Structures are given as structure tokens and as C-alpha cells.
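pasting for ref
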Amino acid sequence: MEWQNTPQSTNIDDRRGETGGGLPLGGGGLGLGTIVVLALIGYFTGIDPRVLIGGAEVVENVRHPQTVQAPANYAGAPTTGRDDPMKTFVAHVLGETEAVWAEVLPAQTGVRYVDATLVLYDGATQSGCGGARAQMGPFYCPLDKKVYLDLSFFRDMQTKYGGGGDFAYAYVIAHEVGHHVQDLLGILDKVQAAEQGVSQTRRNALSVRVELMADCLAGVWAANANQKWKLLDAGDVEKAVATAQAIGDDRLETAAQGYAVPDSFTHGSSAMRVKWLTTGLNSGRVDACDTFRQ
């Protein structure tokens, strides 16, 4: 992925090195609703759609702070100082999303794009939706319009999910920014209203639609960013597709227990995630990402 000559965002709140934002080791939780850990998903679980509406995603295994794998273009260990390669990479990817959505969103939907802030943290911090923890994976909080990212998730993509690579990492960031786009379009509020008073199965189905749309919007970003800056190298799309496949609910449930239960899915099957990512990549259009009608 050729990202070095793209714009860098200044909307990064780097909290790494802080002492967990004052969070206790237990308790906490997101203020949007009760986190429901789906026991059938061993490695990578969803949460109650009342929280998932905000884009939160839970990784059940607790991660201990370690050195983060830098993007493939970098050599040497990352730091948390001025020359931190991972922060530089994240700033470029976020800057690319800002530049693309500032053009694409109003042109295609008539809605003005407002930048989100991306929070980097170690282990735990506070979000507008309550306590943020590394176990939760990257997530978007609609109450403070921020994306939260513990960079150890990128290491886990390699060691647990068989993904990795700079475009795969960029896909993760773009997916969470996709939730921000959904928020600006009013989709998250509509889904939150729709899931009131319905069964858990229906709530799960709604959360799948939200997540698949965010996958598609990540593809829309990539398609338009590639037109602007010629970002993609040979194999980049394949790596992102491999990541989407690896974190499909069916793959994760089967790995954990030997079989999958579709009614428990909260993010979508591997095939569904790949389908919607590639739909966004091939179309470059927001209106191609209406997962609620298909």
C-alpha cells in the first residue's frame, strides 16, 4: 500500500502511556447498553446491538501489552515518540478517509462530512460510551464521535486471525470510520430504534447489517482513495479479503466449537463480509452499500 504521500490527519488523540484512564481492572463497560458476550464465539465476539450500533467489537481474549507489528513498509520497532511509525501510518490512513469522505459523502448523499477523532490507547481508557478496553477491539463511539484503537489489535490480526499487512490494517480503520459515516447519515439512530422490543435473533440480524455496511463503506473509501493516490499494490486487496474472511462469524464459531450458529452472528459470515467489502471496492459508491435492503 503506497500511503506515504497521502495527507496526514491531525485528529489523533494519543493516550498511549497513560495509566488506563483511571479504569479499574474489572467492571466498567459501555454506557450504550449491557455488553453481552456471546459464549459461542470463542476468539472474536459481538456485543448487544444496543452497544454494537456504536461499532464496538469485542475480542474475548485479554491481550497483554507487547510491541506492535509495524506496517510492512517499515523496519525497526515502533515507538510512542515523535518518530513512531505506527502513529504516522494511522495518521495517513485517517487523513485519507477524511479527504475521501469530505468529497464523496456530500457528492453522493448531500450530507456534509465532519471529521472523527481517532484515539490511540494502551489497554484501557475512557470513552464517551464508557470504559474502553483492549479486549473490545477497535470501536466507534457515536456519543463522542471518536474511533478507539489499541494497536495491539493489529498484532492479533496476524497471530490469531491470519491477517495483517498495511492495507488490512487500513481496512480496519476505514471500517470504524464507516460507522462514523453511518452515524452522520442517521443510520445508527434508525437501527437503534428498530431493535427496541424485538428478539435477540432480530437484534443480531440488525447488527450484522450494520457491520456489513461498514465493511462496504471501507471498500468505498479504498476505491476512491486508490483513484486519488494510487494506493493499492499487487496483493493488497487479497490481504484485506483474507482478513475479512478470517473474522467472519462462521469461521470464528467453527474454530471455537466446531460448528456455527447463524442466528448468533453479529458481524456476518466470511462470505458476507468479503461480498460487501468487494461491493464497495468495485462500486466506489455509498448507495451500493444498502445492506438493509439486500
